[in-house]
Specification:
- The complex is a heterodimer of chains A (301) and B (154).
- Chain A is an alpha/beta fold.
- Chain A folds into 2 domains: 132 residues, Rossmann fold (3-Layer(aba) Sandwich), CATH 3.40.50; 155 residues, 3-Layer(aba) Sandwich (Rossmann fold).
- A 5-stranded parallel beta sheet of chain A has the order 7-6-5-8-9, with helices on one face.
- In chain A, strand 6, helix 7 and strand 7 form a beta-alpha-beta unit.
- The longest helix of chain A has 19 residues.
- By secondary structure, chain B is mostly beta strands.
- Chain B has 2 domains: 82 residues, 2-Layer Sandwich (Alpha-Beta Plaits), CATH 3.30.70; 44 residues, Aspartate carbamoyltransferase regulatory subunit, C-terminal domain (SH3 type barrels).
- A 5-stranded antiparallel beta sheet of chain B has the order 2-3-1-4-5, covered by helices on one side.
- The chains are: A alpha/beta (301), B mainly beta (154).
- Chains A and B meet through helix 4 of A and loops of B.
- The structure holds zinc ion.
- The site of zinc ion has 8 residues of chain B, from loops.
């Protein structure tokens, strides 16, 4: 097993499957005191309540204690302490560091300046590998398999890091893709070339309705304002898709709707009660996957 | 114009290294990378010389200095077509191309403003990707591709 989890690319297919099978054990037995006496640092250099709570709960359920901060106001970092100094200091206190940072590559750098495992809980627009692993876990859980799954990705496919990482991770499992996005937010060429090189088929459309009925996973994403440098570009595309209950007639019975959450308007509330909505369970799965990540990196599974 | 005539435009050296076929617009990058502005040996620089393959090329002659391959591979980003001539007693005793290293450390700047290497004191590290005559750099930290080589200032 790799020492740290920085990028989904650092994990082989076997390592990914190992994490997913440990996560299944965690879901079956939600309180395992594997990490009694261990201390986990959760360092959030930019706030993300959702991700932080998920990691902190995961650590607590394993019996570990958690220290850290949820944003940098009132810390020595706001007084100009370097990332290296913060990481070196904290790494002497704890057994593993979970960190989120606005700079891309920050987690990789942190893992190189200390001797304990580092889990990347998001480095700017770059990687968020625990999200990718929980997406894979949820696909496996809902479809009973990871191989030959048809995934329709919807929304911001240009800036959305979750779809890029998921696309690359799924490439191990002979998927087929549909990319549903407005013209301004299409999947970047480099990712399509990545699929072409591996012979993985994909189609592109601007219409949400077009490929609703021939996919196993409908992966909805939010258009994130903070990724846009041009506010006009954001205004044009922010409300482009809205999935409603009435649109789901004729979808595959096994079809599940995933969303990394939070949603803004792209999934109507009336979808929540359909058998296809799976985003709340997906968020819950995040905790089991994060339990598995922390336990595996500390050598317990 | 023959190779011999071009050579004559820059004074000959007795012993040392001649770096030829450097794109004229990148010659100062090469000088930077090899830190030649601080060299003690005589350095002769020729710019905007005619070249069949490059249009306008540059030449750098460094007297009494011989570089390790590792040192020379650092200029591959600025001059992927460059040739290295080793001169002994006014004769070219060896002539070779520069190999593109698989990884470059501490030479190039990442073009991503949100990259940790541009905000903290982190040594840059890139994988090189050759596409035709162009070299792209894949950042070890932010995982973004830099298309244009931007040298780090010393
Ligand atoms: Zn970078």
């Amino acid at each position: 097993m790799s020492k740290s989890l920085i990028s989904i690319h650092d994990f082989s297919k076997e390592e990914i499957l190992h994490i997913l099978s440990v996560a299944r054990e965690m879901e079956a037995d939600k309180s395992q005191k594997l990490l009694d006496g261990k201390v986990v640092a959760c360092l959030f250099f930019e706030p993300s309540t959702r991700t932080r709570l998920s990691f902190e709960t995961a650590a607590n359920r394993l019996g570990a204690r958690v220290i850290g901060f949820s944003d940098v106001a009132n810390t020595s970092i706001s007084k100009g302490e370097t990332l290296k100094d913060t990481i070196k200091m904290v790494s002497n206190y704890v057994d593993i560091i979970v960190m989120r940072h606005p700079l891309e590559g920050a987690a990789r750098y942190a893992s190189e300046v200390c001797d304990i495992p580092v889990v990347n809980a998001g480095d700017g627009a770059n990687q968020h590998p625990s999200q990718t692993l929980l997406d894979l876990y949820t696909i496996l859980e809902t479809q009973g398999r990871l191989d030959n799954v048809s995934v329709n990705m919807v929304g911001d496919l240009k800036y959305g890091r979750t779809v890029h990482s998921l696309l690359q991770a799924m490439s191990h499992f002979s998927p087929r893709f549909c990319f549903t996005s407005p013209d301004e937010l299409r999947m970047p060429v480099e990712y399509k070339e990545f699929l072409d090189m591996r012979g993985i088929p994909y189609t592109e459309t601007a219409s949400l309705q077009e490929h609703l009925c021939d996919c196993d996973i409908l992966y909805m994403t939010r258009v994130q304002q903070e990724r846009f440098s041009d506010p006009m570009e954001y205004e044009k595309v922010k409300d482009v898709y809205r999935l409603e209950r009435a649109m789901l007639e004729g979808v595959r019975p096994n079809m599940k709707i995933l969303h990394p959450l939070p949603r803004v308007g792209e999934i109507a509330d009336d979808v929540d009660d359909t058998p296809y909505a799976y985003y709340y369970k997906q968020a819950e799965n995040g905790m089991y996957v994060r339990m598995a990540i922390i336990a595996c990196l500390l050598g317990y599974k | 114009m023959s190779e011999k005539n071009t050579q004559l435009k820059v004074s000959a050296i007795k012993d040392g290294t001649v770096l030829d076929h450097i794109p004229a617009q990148n010659i100062f990058q090469v000088i930077d990378i090899l830190d030649l502005s601080h060299a003690k040996n005589p350095v002769t620089i020729g710019v905007n010389l005619e070249s069949k393959s490059l249009g306008r090329k540059g030449i750098i002659k460094i007297a009494d200095r011989f570089f390790a391959d590792e040192e020379l591979s650092r200029i591959a980003l600025a001059a992927p077509e460059a040739t290295v001539n080793i001169i002994r007693n006014y004769e070219v005793v060896s002539k070779k191309r520069i190999d593109l290293p698989a990884e470059v450390v501490g030479i190039a700047k990442c073009s991503n403003p949100m990259c940790v290497t541009n905000r903290q004191a982190v040594t840059t590290r890139f994988k090189t990707i050759k596409e035709g005559k162009k070299v792209k750099l894949l950042c070890h930290y932010c995982e973004k591709t830099t298309e244009e080589f931007i040298p780090l200032r010393h």
